Amino acid sequence: MRLYLASTSAARLAVLRAAGIEPICFSPEVDEAAEVAALEREVGRSLTAIELTEYLGRLKAEDVVRRFGAEGTGEIDGLVLGGDSAFLLDGEILGKPHYPDVALARAKQHRGRTGVLHSGHWLIDHTGGEVRGAAGAVDTATVSLAADVSDAELEAYVATGEPLELAGGFAIDGLAGSFIERIEGAPSCVIGLSLPAFRGLVRELGHEMPALWNRQ
């Protein structure tokens, strides 16, 4: 059975490959800010981080199904996975910093403290060329940055450019791995795709993980 990933994230792809799955990747076309703003107007409040990550994962998966499923090009016959992540410190969602000064300020704020990473998932069963079901889940992990990380180390890390396009401004599977003192929860959740949560969704839709193993 084939897995279609509604993401071009290198980190999510690496997690799946390490788990024996080589997905087919599609780039979702979702105006995240506009979609979230519309839903928040509809419900009359701001979305929580948990709601936000699952909702965006759902939008991405549904977009790929719409464009490449039965009503689109008809390329999809399998499971479609969308995901999103949000990192919180002091209850504030810290998205991708984009700029070096923002990334450095956030790293210093995180130093010696623990943040919360929510990883949202939405899985659509599109086996047989039609939608047969869908399910979502959010997994959570905490990440503690070592208190003794120096300004020079953080400045050198930011200078590499690695944290600029990462939620929270760090990657445990990258150069910042040596700065992370403790993780509580699934390590894959911190990378952006919780394998335990994903397996739960696969089973909820009536399938088993080994059916997706296609890497030698």
**Portion of residues in helices?**
25-40%
Q: Mean pLDDT score, rounded? A: 95
From the alpha-carbon coordinates, what is the Rg to the nearest angstrom? Answer: 18 Å
Please report the total strand number as a whole number.
7
Count of separate DSSP helical elements: 7
Q: What order do the helices and strands follow?
A: EHEHHEEHEEHEHH
Assigned CATH architecture: Alpha-Beta Complex
The biggest sheet, with number of strands, parallel, antiparallel or mixed sense and barrel status, is: 7 strands, mixed
Number of domains: 1
**What is the CATH class designation?**
Alpha Beta
- Unreliable segments of 5+ consecutive residues: none
How widely separated are the two ends? 15 Å
CATH fold assignment: Maf protein
Tell me the overall shape.
globular
Derived structural class? alpha/beta
Instruction: Report the portion of residues in β strands.
Output: 15-25%
